[in-house]
Automatic annotation (TrEMBL):
Residues 17-245 form the ABC transporter domain. SUPFAM superfamilies: P-loop containing nucleoside triphosphate hydrolases (SSF52540). GO terms for molecular function: ATP binding; ATP hydrolysis activity; transmembrane transporter activity. It comes from Paenibacillus phyllosphaerae. This is Putative ABC transport system ATP-binding protein. The keyword Plastid does not apply. Transmembrane segments: none annotated. Pfam families: ABC_tran. Keywords: ATP-binding, Nucleotide-binding, Transport.
């Protein structure tokens, strides 16, 4: 356990997610790469946040730390006031199974399984009780507008539809936090917009908080907050008072 001052703990309690003094160094000695340095950020509950920056600026490294997939070299991350850094890998995976959903650029669906089976299988892998899995999987597919097509296999679906199934899989256990690394990078503008509309609906109607990365300038207009990274450091944080969706 890391000792935290009273003030630090109080500040962490106010935000849905908060990161302080994050540094991540890969490798050692001459080969060491500092992927993140001096990163401080606060994510309000029920908001959509985009991380932007050039290739190699540290976006994925930061997302991995915020989703408890990776540990920073220095610094602390809090989710709803609870520190998620300094946990064992078993505690981290328990936390992800309960509170975090993950979405990736390349969808990651199992080709031989239908959309429904992909989502239901995701719940089983996560160890969620099997009773009620059917309802949870169907509810998640409805949320992303894919219930009608849930018997189709990934190859019978468009890229945007596949990504919506991947989102259903990520939210079937009803996490409070959804983390998405370049979720629209493989989609054309129209399908990317559909995916962003699904995200907006989840934020507005399920109170979910979403943190995503993107290279697409169009996406920045659709989110609530944009955090720009350059060489592993935050160089600007802006708020859209009127996001376009
Ligand atoms: N496991 C690792 N070992 C060594 N260096 C790494 C590792 N992961 C990332 N890096 C380095 O850290 C830096 C940040 O990488 P990261 O993947 O976070 O960038 P990114 O902003 O997500 O880029 P992209 O837009 O290309 O996805 C890069 O210099 C990268 O080479
Ligand atoms: Mg990346």
């Amino acid at each position: 356990m890391t000792a935290l001052g009273e003030k630090e703990r109080e500040a962490a309690d106010e935000a849905f997610m908060k990161a302080t003094g994050i540094k991540r160094v890969f490798g050692k000695g001459n080969a060491a790469v500092t992927a993140l340095a001096d990163v401080h950020l606060t994510v309000p509950a029920g908001s959509m946040v985009a991380l932007k920056g050039r290739s190699g600026s540290g976006k994925t490294t930061l997302l991995n730390i915020l989703s408890a997939l990776d540990e920073p070299t220095e610094g602390h991350v809090f989710l709803r006031g609870r520190e998620i850094t300094g946990l064992s890998s078993r505690e981290r995976s328990a936390l992800r199974r309960k509170e975090i959903g993950l979405v990736f650029q390349s969808f990651g669906l199992v080709p031989l399984m239908s959309a429904y089976e992909n989502v239901e299988f995701g719940l089983r892998v996560a160890g969620t009780p099997t009773k009620g899995n059917r309802e949870a999987a169907e509810r998640a597919l409805s949320r992303v507008g894919m219930k009608e097509r849930m018997k189709h296999r990934p190859m019978e679906l468009s890229g945007g539809e596949q990504q919506r199934v991947a989102i259903a899989r990520a939210i079937a256990h009803e996490p409070g936090l959804l983390i998405a690394d370049e979720p629209t990078a493989e989609l054309d503008t129209k399908m990317g917009l559909q995916v962003m509309r699904v995200f907006r609906d989840l934020v507005n109607h399920s109170g979910m908080t979403i943190i995503l990365t993107t290279h697409d300038p169009g996406i920045m207009e659709l989110v609530d907050h944009v955090i720009a990274l350059e060489d592993g450091r935050i160089v600007s944080q802006t708020t859209n008072n009127k996001p376009l969706i």
